[in-house]
Specification:
It comes from Lupinus luteus. The protein is of the alpha/beta class and 579 residues long. 32% of the residues lie in helices and 13% in strands. The protein has helices at residues 2-8, 18-28, 33-47, 58-65, 83-86, 100-104, 109-120, 128-133, 146-159, 288-304, 333-336, 339-345, 351-364, 383-386, 415-418, 430-442, 455-459, 467-470, 473-481, 526-534, 544-556, and strands spanning 163-166, 172-173, 179-188, 197-207, 213-218, 275-278, 308-311, 314-317, 328-332, 348-350, 373-376, 393-396, 448-452, 489-494, 510-513, 561-562. The two termini are 34 Å apart. The chain binds 2-acetamido-2-deoxy-beta-D-glucopyranose (10 copies). Residues 139, 141, 173, 177 line the site of one 2-acetamido-2-deoxy-beta-D-glucopyranose.
Length: 579
């Protein structure tokens, strides 16, 4: 019997584990064997988990596994959380101290005054002709004059109250003689992670009556193209291996994102390395939540074993997220997640690089110097059992039929006590987050948000009897009245495909929907340019998962947040009788 096999694998001795009794009981209720063994083990696993974004909704998680026809994660298009959403907020007073790099360089009124004092005597004054005319004439404005930067810094502090500014660069010329382009790094005060973003804007500079510089006009997000990083730095450093496609010299890519695939280097003795290699399993082409749950299990095991994790950057996006409604292969991990951050947090190597170096080593060395490999055929071999293994490569293979071939099963049972999923290593793609930042920025970081779940759930009256009516336009107008003040910016995160569905709210609020910002991923956008580079120059589709990720993150940044479940409707998030 499969059930007793799999359950006894979780028990350390001969005593009958509680899990097994439970399984027996449940299978008597004529539910699927597999699903419930998965369910039980996962619940056991979860009890040992450190802070985990899905822990907060344990009933939701069990629901994920209780689809008898499919022992996999139910696609949930609601909130998708990653590492940065669960780390303590930078405003959290319980934090012992902020990371040193963040606090020190903050630009405040006080720091501006300090610099102002220092320069007031040392630099030549603004030409008096300019002062009297109040205008900047051709050739008189020197953008690298520190007083220009001071004017811009003051302006920014006034204009963007919820932003913390760091590290300004010396302004450079804009396109006209009275313009300067300025770059800086910043973080929104509401940001859950310490991640900084980069902006560079074009400012039109004028002169005040008392002969100081002032900002007359400020351009929008990323308008100051001349202030991007020196393009020379964007060239790919020498050395072997796969790097991002090289950019042409006049490209103005923001090289803040370093997505390059690391290489092992020719000097490294491959045989002396320690790798954990998971071959593709049943997780491929499943939902993104399933992917994360599995990937972090593998990465967690690698960390536990002090090994480098071999990762496949080529993903398959499940049909539910694709406008084509088909599973799509060949999606790059970097479209969705922050590979740069992952590289910093974990020891990883890209599968292609790894296989190449492995083959090369075996080709150039004698038989007895070949790379030692330990093949592991079943997820029932625990990480603890592999701890002593000295092989260069531990190769877990997942060839059993579903659901025995899911990566996350390695982390079930006993293993859950030792392996922690490294959620902190998995952040959303910075390219997506730049879109989130831009949308929030366009609403001046001052908006309320409502999450309206409709779609499939609204149609399933058996599971969500009131959802459809509770999210009807009239009900929304009524309910929001009590929660959001009139004429506020209202961002609606939703899976309702009909754009005009929310029109009734427009007579009370300034309504914003994701599709209002289409140009941010359209063919003239930075996102489009940058993702095409990851895709050998071919355009990348802004797919359903990206939409949900951006929609949700903007929602998180709202001042007042209204959720569908608990706020708009009394139906339970996961169907009747689940709350
Ligand atoms: C799994 O679930 C999906 C969506 O719920 C469904 O389309 C598919 O047919 C299911 N697969 C099996 C094997 O039942
Ligand atoms: C700048 O000049 C003023 C007087 O013009 C003087 O009081 C002040 O100390 C000077 N500051 C510096 C930093 O030299
Ligand atoms: C910037 O503009 C000023 C005058 O407008 C000019 O003197 C200077 O050479 C320009 N600098 C660069 C780097 O083009
Ligand atoms: C602009 O100002 C900077 C700093 O004060 C100075 O070093 C530079 O020589 C000036 N450039 C011109 C063209 O005046
Ligand atoms: C880019 O610049 C390098 C030197 O800076 C030059 O050798 C190369 O030809 C340039 N490439 C293009 C496409 O302009
Ligand atoms: C990008 O990161 C890799 C390490 O992952 C580093 O070796 C490389 O120098 C970085 N490139 C740039 C341009 O910073
Ligand atoms: C991994 O390294 C840490 C410290 O370097 C050590 O405490 C731990 O025992 C090592 N784990 C294994 C499985 O070797
Ligand atoms: C961008 O898309 C629009 C409409 O989708 C199309 O008309 C235009 O030609 C496209 N531009 C480029 C540069 O591909
Ligand atoms: C995208 O690339 C095209 C062609 O290289 C360029 O003309 C355009 O300015 C770029 N757009 C952005 C927003 O960087
Ligand atoms: C939504 O519901 C939660 C939980 O009941 C509550 O804490 C929160 O204040 C509600 N939000 C609004 C905007 O009323």
């Amino acid at each position: 019997m499969k059930v007793s096999n799999s359950s006894s694998s979780s028990s350390s001795g001969g005593t009958e584990p509680i899990g097994q009794n439970l399984i027996k009981l449940i299978s008597n209720l004529c539910f699927s064997f597999f699903v419930f063994s998965v369910l039980i083990f996962t619940v056991i696993a979860i009890t040992y988990q450190p802070p985990d974004p899905w822990l907060q909704s344990a009933p939701a998680l069990t629901q994920l596994f209780t689809r008898p026809e499919n022992a996999t994660f139910q696609i949930d298009t609601s909130i998708i959380k990653t590492g940065e959403d669960i780390t303590p907020s930078p405003q959290d007073p319980s934090l012992p101290f902020p990371p040193p790099s963040s606090a020190a360089a903050t630009v405040t009124e006080a720091s501006i005054e300090k610099i102002e004092d220092k320069i007031s005597n040392s630099t030549t004054s603004i030409p008096s002709a300019a002062c009297s005319s109040g205008e900047i004439t051709a050739g008189t404005l020197n953008c690298s004059d520190p007083r220009v930067l001071i004017a811009v810094q003051r302006f920014n502090l006034r204009a963007f109250k919820s932003i913390v500014f760091f590290e300004y660069q010396i302004p450079v010329n804009g396109s006209a003689s009275n313009e300067c382009d300025v770059a800086w790094r910043f973080r929104n005060k509401k940001e859950k992670s310490w991640r900084k973003y980069r902006d560079f804007r074009r400012f039109k500079i004028g002169i005040t009556d008392d002969c100081r510089y002032k900002v007359v006009h400020a351009g929008g997000w990323h308008s100051g193209g001349n202030a991007r990083r020196n393009p020379a730095r964007a060239t790919v450093p020498g050395g072997k291996g796969k790097t991002l496609p090289r950019l042409s010299n006049n490209s103005n890519r923001d090289d803040e994102i370093n997505d390059t695939i690391p290489t092992l280097g020719s000097q490294v003795n491959f045989r002396n390395g320690k790798y954990l290699y998971y071959s593709r399993g049943g997780d491929y082409c499943k939902g993104m939540n399933h992917y994360m749950w599995s990937f972090l299990c593998g990465l967690g095991e690698a960390m536990y074993l002090n090994r480098t994790f071999v990762m496949d950057l080529s993903m398959c996006l499940a049909a539910t997220y694709n406008p084509s409604n088909k599973d799509e292969e060949g999606k790059d991990f970097r479209y969705y997640f922050d590979f740069e951050h992952l590289k910093e947090e974990a020891s990883i190597v890209e599968e292609g690089e790894f296989l190449k170096d492995w083959k090369k080593w075996d080709r150039t060395h004698l038989k007895k110097r070949k790379v030692p490999v330990k093949k592991v055929l079943s997820h029932k071999v625990t990480p603890i059992q592999l701890k002593k293994d000295k092989s260069t490569i531990i190769w877990r293979q997942f060839d059993a039929p579903e659901p025995e071939n899911y990566w996350y099963r390695v982390c079930e049972g006993q293993a859950a006590k030792y392996i922690q999923r490294p959620w902190h290593a998995l952040w959303k793609s910075k390219r997506l987050m730049n879109i989130v930042t831009e949308i929030s920025g366009r609403m001046d970081w001052d908006f309320d948000a409502v999450h309206v779940v409709r779609g499939e759930k609204a149609e399933r009256k058996d599971l969500w009897p009131h959802l459809d009516s509770d999210t009807s336009p009239d009900a929304l107008v009524e309910k929001l009245k009590g929660m959001v003040r009139p004429w506020r910016n209202l961002y609606i995160a939703t899976n309702e495909p009909f754009y005009n569905y929310f029109d009734k709210l427009r007579s009370n609020y300034k309504v914003h929907l994701l599709d209002d910002y289409k140009e941010l991923w359209g063919n003239t956008s930075e996102w489009y340019n940058e993702t095409s580079l990851l895709n050998n120059g071919k355009p990348v589709e802004f797919d359903g998962y990206m939409r949900v990720a951006v929609d949700t993150e903007v929602f998180y940044r709202g001042t007042t947040r209204v959720e569908t479940f608990y706020n708009l409707t009394k139906d339970c998030k996961d169907g009747v009788k689940t709350c």
